[in-house]
């Protein structure tokens, strides 16, 4: 158990160190976190096992003010798919800890609200993807496994408590936005 907590502590420290800038070097943060995840993949898988099989949940690992940053671990049930959603203009980074995730990125037209798919990333253990803090970014995430829970580490440039999810109307094809609130299931010790 001690090695697992130490590994989470190292990941938390990497996030907090890079997160001292208002716009951190997300590629370097992802690289450094990925190296730790690759080296300690079995330790993380074993230590985070209690989070698997519980449904979609967000667990707080760290938070700080000035500059704002939050670090969370998320559990993704098999085949779980989020709606397309934004991050309230925050920058963000996602690193796969256990399992594999698909991330579809969208750009939102600030005038019409229309969404256009920009690309997709597939994340395996230690792989990361990130987005800058712009109001026009949205994405959707999906656990690629039909049988196993995936776990990811998320770092945001603030507290993501309110955001928008987007749905496309079948008849008109227009996009509508729905205000959302996120919840944290608990705090992880590290």
Topology at a glance:
Elements: H1 2-18, H2 26-39, H3 41-47, E1 57-64, E2 69-76, E3 84-85, E4 92-98, E5 101-108, E6 115-123, E7 128-131, E8 137-143, E9 150-156, E10 162-168, E11 175-181, E12 186-187
Parallel strand pairs: 1-12
Antiparallel strand pairs: 1-2, 2-9, 3-10, 4-7, 4-9, 5-6, 5-8, 10-11
Gist of the model:
The chain is α+β, with helices and mostly antiparallel strands and 190 residues long. The protein has helices spanning 2-18, 26-39, 41-47; strands at residues 57-64, 69-76, 84-85, 92-98, 101-108, 115-123, 128-131, 137-143, 150-156, 162-168, 175-181, 186-187. The chain is built from 3 helices and 12 strands; from the N terminus they run H-H-H-E-E-E-E-E-E-E-E-E-E-E-E.
Structural commentary:
- It is a single chain.
- The protein is of the alpha+beta class.
- The protein has a single domain (2-187), classed as Sandwich (Jelly Rolls), CATH 2.60.120.10.
- 20% of the residues lie in helices and 40% in strands.
- It has a six-stranded mixed sheet with strand order 7-4-9-2-1-12, with helices on one face.
- α1 (2-18) packs antiparallel against α2 (26-39) and α1 packs across α3.
| Beta-strand residue percentage | 35-45%
Class by SSE composition:
alpha+beta
The mean pLDDT is: 94
Low-confidence spans: pLDDT under 50, at least 5 residues? none
The CATH topology name reads Jelly Rolls
Number of helices: 3
Radius of gyration: 16 Å
CATH-assigned homologous superfamily: Jelly Rolls
Order of helices and strands: HHHEEEEEEEEEEEE
Oligomer: single chain
**Largest sheet, spatial ordering of strands:** 7-4-9-2-1-12
Number of strands: 12
How far apart are the termini? 10 Å
Please tell me the CATH architecture by its name: Sandwich
* Overall tally of structural domains: 1
Can you tell me the overall shape?
A: globular
CATH class: Mainly Beta
**Helix-residue proportion:** 10-25%
Characterize the largest beta sheet: strand count, sense, and whether it forms a barrel: 6 strands, mixed
